Target: GTPase HflX
Amino acid sequence: MKEKIIAVTVKLPNTKIDYNNRINELKNLIIANKGEVVSEVVSSRKFIDSSLYIGKGKAEEIKFLAEELEADTIVFNNDLSGSQLKNLSDLIDKKIIDRTSLILDIFANRTRSKESKLQVQLAQMEYMLPRLVGFRKNLSKASAGIGTRGLGEQKLELDRRKISKEINRIKKKLEKIESTRIINSKNRVDSKIPIVSLVGYTNAGKSTIGNELTNFYKKEQSEVFAKKNMLFMTLDTTTRKGVLPSGLEFLIADTVGFIEDIPTNLIEAFKSTLEEIKYSDCILNIIDSSSENIEEQIETTYEILNSLEILDIPIINVFNKTDIKKEMVYNKDILLDNNIYISAYNKNDIEILLHEIEKTLEYKYVNINMDLSYDRKNQNIVRELKDKGYNLFVDYGEYINIKAKVLKSEKELFLKYFKE
Model:
């Protein structure tokens, strides 16, 4: 049985927040967490109530509504302090969850790798630490469900000293895992295969595009990136191999989706994983062109990329889902150059995108074309270069014709084989 949820949004004056999008986003987050929204409460206030966030009168209305609808949980579309969590829980007598707890809960439910699980646990504990009084009330009202995933499984005592100790223990574990991941990332860079990372707002279609790019020039099709019309389907960075129009192989990395006002501690927890993007040769910023909040998507993504200090990597802004909505209204001045408009389900569009990726990657490579005589030395060199990971296209005609795309930094090293 799905958990019955009342979603609460407080509108404040003099903010740039698009509340219609924020309300819809909260509903989708609850659905992504397998909850059922039985009612949506929207309240306009001039200022935040320090004790109950929404004020006593509105809190009592929600209490009555929760009893009438037999709701299990009240989810607020903002962050609450520990005292606000406790006071609301005391008055309404239901489990109280805020927006950050909801997002952390989705992550706790979806992560698969050991590193991601530890990252989410760390983010949960760091968020919980200053709110212990509120979390104690929530865990006393429900042994499971939204807002308790990850925490309930650990059977963690809500003691400040023990939580601080556990935070330090997890950080040490993550440091060890990160050192191993850095080595693996360096190995991918050293493999001489270009890396293309998919980034963007959650549910923009990154995984669908990743599958299409991976399979386009392959005879056997497979779904290598999980896809579903739901927020935060991809949490663990996944890397697969694709083929460009020229035959050059490349790696496609699908990353965790972004969201407006994503919890700071969650960004910090996943920062080490997201920093793998810095090893990319090209970034595809996937944008949901059918969304009403295109500008927020773009701004959120670029803010995160800027915080990771990777805006110097070439970026292709991919406006996806043009099959759903043909016309887009947004401030084009906020975008960098290099935009492309596609539907992930249109094969012609995917081919155009692949050509654009190859064109963008040209800055790193130099083309080499040479004819070699048929002697044992040259044939051995060809085999050796293939074994070392170079992308060679060999034609055995009157001569051994070699065409190769080589990193500019390795051109002299490549040619050295034929000079010795």
The radius of gyration is 26 Å. The first strand starts at residue 3 and ends at 11.
